[in-house]
Amino acid sequence: QVQLVESGGGSVQAGGSLRLSCTASGFTFDESIMGWYRQAPGNECELVSSISYDGGIYYADSVKGRFTISQNNAKNTIYLDMNSLNPEDTAVYYCAPTYLPPGGPCRKRAYNFSGQGTQVTVSS
Hints:
This protein is mainly β.
């Protein structure tokens, strides 16, 4: 099983910041575009941001200017720096390759990726 393990979530007040990390084992980023996804109760699995090996970056409109994605290929880790958090950012956050089918990243265990996501809770 490939490991993509998320960490760094927590509970913060609105306006606060968190840094999420995703460390890979048995998987390298040089062949995939990696994404941070999130899913709140009752909502679909949403792509928040993605990064390619050569540095191409995408942000969802809802997080532009507040979130920053980065990667450290030497450590096989990608990061999501989240600033100016608001209650709408509350969700479980997952990292996964973007080639998974819709919804797949938020249930990636079905695709032989380990990692349970990390909970982010933002209170008003």
